[in-house]
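A quick aside before the break. I want you to see a complete sequence-to-structure record at least once, exactly as it would be stored in a machine-readable document. Don't worry about memorizing anything.
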Amino acid sequence: QEKASCLSAALFGEDCEISRDQLYELLKFAALGKCHNASQPSWCRIYRQSHLAGVVVVVLPEMSQLHFYQFYLQFKHLRKVFRHRFTLTPSANFLASLYGEGANPKPQNTAQGILLGLTSTISKSSDLQCDPIFQKYGGKKRGLTSYILTSEELNKYDYPIKGSTRWKGYVCTGCDKQRTDSSPLFGLDCEMCLTAKGNEVTYVSLVDARGQCLLNELVKPQSEVVNYRTSFSGITEEMLLPVKTSLSDIQTRLKKILPRDAVLVGHSLNNDLQALEMIHPSVIDTSLLFARTGSRRFKLKFLAKAVLGKEIQCEEMVGHDPAEDARTALELAQFFIEQGPAKVAELNLEMVLRAENLAEVSKKKDALQPQGCRVQQQSNEPPHLSKPCFLECLQVTGQKPLLLGRQELDSSGLCQSNLSTSNKQILQKALEDVPLSTFSIIQFSLGPENLSSRLLAELCEKVGSKLTDMLTIYAGPFEENFCLKSVKKKFGKCGPIQSLTVVTETYQPYVCIQYEVLEAAQLAVESLDGAEVAGSCIKVQRPVTAAMLDCDVLIKELELDVENEGVIYVAGLKRSITEKDLQEEFSQLKDLEMLFLPKDLQSAKHRNCCFLKFQKSQSAVDALEVINGWTMKGGKLRSRNALASGHLWRWIWQMNHSNGKQRGNIFYKKMQHLPDCEQDLKKKVKKLDNHIQKLYRSLHNNTLCVVLFPGVN
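That is the input. The structure line, written in C-alpha cells, reads:
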C-alpha cells in the first residue's frame, strides 16, 4: 500500500518512475521482513509483511513499456488485475542485478533444463533418500490413512488405548467406523494447568478441515490448581472464576461433534487426549509426521514458520492460542498429504533449524559484545566483501527461492538462452513448484527473433505515431477568413494544446490540433463535434489511418482501466488559479481523496486542467454531473473520466518532446515486414497473458505478485 503522497505523485506522472534499487528494496522487504537488515522500502510501504504467503516475480525479458502500450488490448488480464504500475528505469544485465549485491547463482540443469539451482535444499535423489521423512514414507504421495498412527505406535508414544488397565475410566469418542482417505480431519489442541491431580485441561479448541472453530471453551479443573502455567497456557485465576464447564461436559460435546470416521490431528496429541481423559483410535501426530533422526521432534512454532510461512506463539502474546495451534497442526497435516513426503523432504528442515539456531547464537553474541568491539569489528571488515543478496538470506532462513525460465545465468552473470524450453513447459513447472516456494522468479520469453534492433525501432515509431494520432484532432471546415485565435480559445478549454496548425490542402481550411493529454483530445471530439466555432458548424475527428481503426475500442478500454478507477479529468481552468483555490472549490465533492494540478515539465507552469481522484467510483460519476458546466472564476469547466495513467501520460510527453520532433505517419511507408511480425507478436502476447492469468489464479491468497517488463537494455 503506497503512502498517499507517493500514490498521488505516481498516479499523475510525477514519481511514477522507480529504479532498480527501489524495486530491490520492495522485493527484499517483502521476502525477508525485518530480518537481515531488510527495511521498509523508501518509496512505498508494506503493511503486515508477516502475513504474506509469498512473493512471485514474473519477468518478460524482451518486453518493455513500449510493448505494453502497443499490445494494450492483448494484455487483457494484466491490465485488469494489476492496478499499480510504474516505469522502471533501464539497467544493464537486469536479471543478474535483480538478485542484489554479491549474488552469483550457478545454473543447475534439471530434466527440463529450466530450474536454476538457487536453493541449498536437497536436490539429488541420493541425498533425498537419506532424509528421515523420505526413509519413513517413501517418495510417492499417499492418502491420509497412510499417516494415521498404528496401534503399536499409539502404545509406543503413550496414547490412551482402549482395553488397557492404565487408561481405566477414560471415555471413548465412539468413532469406531472404518477410516478411508476421504475421512474428515479435525485439529485439536488443549491448554493445561498443574493441579493436585496432575495435568488438567483448562482450555479446549477443535477446528474442522476448513479451519473453522467448532469448539473453543474454557474448562474448570476438578482439583485445586497448583500452577496455572500462564506463560504457556495464557490461563489466569481470574479467567477461570466464572467458568462452569466441566471436563465431562467437554467429553460429551466432543462425542456429539465428531463423526464416526473422524481423524484427529494435533502436535504431540497424546498429552491433549490424556488431559481430556479420552480415547480416540485414529490420530495423525504432526510431531511424528515431520520425522527427525532419533527420537527428536520439531516444535510446532518452527514447523509453522518453515513449512507454512506463518508466525504463531508470538512473544508479545501471553500464552498460546489453542485454536491457532489446532489450526496450524491441521494445516501441516494437510500440506504433508497434499504435497507428499518427497516435497516435504526437499524443504530440508534439519538444515533450516541449524541455520536458525546459528543465527540466534550469533545474535546473542552480538548483544553480549560491548558496543565498541562491534564497531571495531565492522571497521576491520575487508572493503571488497559485498553484502549477501537477499536470495542467500532466504536460504539461511530456510525459505526456498525458485527461478524458472528459458534464460539461465552463467558464472559471469550473463543470460544464456535455453531454447528447448517452451513457455508452456515453464508454466506447467511453475504451477507445480511456485506454491512450495516463498520467493519465485518466473521468466516467460517472446524469443530472440523479436529482439532485432530494427523491429524494435519500427515498433517504437509505430507506437509513437499512434499515440500522436490519438492526441490529434482535425476540426473544420471553416470560412476562408476565420479567426484562428477564437478557434484556439475554444479548443483550449478542453485542455493544454501542444500545437495548432491550419490545413490549407483542402477546399476549405481545417485546423489540426495536437493536445498534450488524451483526455483533452477525447473531450474535444465528444463536446465540439457539430458545434458552431468561429462562425462555422464544424466536424471534429481524429486522423483516419489503419492504425486508428480500433481507436474507439482502445479509448473505451483505457477508460475502464483499474488505474483510472475513480479518477476524473477537469479542463477549462484559468491559468491564474492555484491548487489552494481548487481545494476550496472542490471541497464540497463527496469522497474526494486527492487533487493534482499538472505542471509543464519544462516551464513548471500550471496547466489549465487538473485530475481528481475519489475513494469510490460512484462518487466520481456523481462529481462528473456536478462539475460539467460549473463556472469557476469566470471559466466554464468541462470534465470526463480519466484515460491516461501517470506513466503513460509522462511517456507520451517524452515521445512528443524527444529531440524536438513531431512524429507523423510518413514512416508507415517504410514498414514492409512489420505487419507479419506484429501479427505473430500479437498471438504470442495473448498466450503470455493467458499464462500469467493461469499462474496468478494458482497463487495462494496474500501473495505479492510483480510483473516486470525490463526491456533489452
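Two observations worth writing down. The mean pLDDT is 80. The radius of gyration is 33 Å. We'll return to this after the break.
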